[in-house]
Amino acid sequence: MALLLLLLIPAAPVAALGLLGYGLGTLGHRAWHRNVAALLGAVAAGFYTWGLLHLAGAVVEAEDGGASSSPLLPCRTLAQEERAARVVDYSVDYVPLRFVCETTGGGSYPAESVPGYVNPAVAGLALAAGVCAVVPALVSGRRAAKSRAA
């Protein structure tokens, strides 16, 4: 789990910078929808990186042994004190980004490690980037089909 975090943390900003460079580097060209898609993808990758950093911090806190390490630090909140006492392990979800506290009896609950705005922002920006990339291709395909039919 920690190894995957070590791989994703450098990869996400590289993707963000690559998309940002592509989006800004091709601003003068006619295909503005590609530029917008790349810029939206860059911002989505930036938000994902921000969430990964929060997630990595939670994993470091959870793996840190020593005094006051039980229950796991990321699983402790004032609203969840009763559940936090029953935490036995944790897991990490990458889509959506979240730190999951696993309790006795097979239950689980997400900790508040990743800010609440990260996952909706990543999903919305990625969806918008996909629409900006796909819709113009579909429209040009329809135009080409109409011109062949005429």
Q: How would you describe what is shown here?
A:
There is one protein chain. This protein is α+β, with helices and mostly antiparallel strands and 150 residues long. It has one domain. The chain has helices at 2-25, 32-63, 81-84, 118-149, and strands spanning 87-94, 97-103, 108-110. Helix 1 (2-25) packs antiparallel against helix 2 and helix 2 (32-63) runs antiparallel to helix 4. The radius of gyration is 21 Å and the shape is elongated. The model has no long low-confidence stretch (mean pLDDT 81).
Itemize the secondary structure elements and their pairings.
Blueprint: H1 2-25, H2 32-63, H3 81-84, E1 87-94, E2 97-103, E3 108-110, H4 118-149
Antiparallel strand pairs: 1-2, 2-3
Helix pairs in contact: 1-2, 2-4
Would you kindly provide a brief summary of this structure?
The protein has 150 residues and is an alpha+beta fold. Helix content is 61%, strand content 12%.
CA-atom Rg in angstroms = 21 Å
The best one-word shape is elongated
Helicity, as a percent range? 55-70%
Count of DSSP strands:
3
Could you give the order of strands across the largest sheet?
Answer: 1-2-3
Highlighted features:
elongated, 3-stranded antiparallel β-sheet, 150 residues, 3 strands
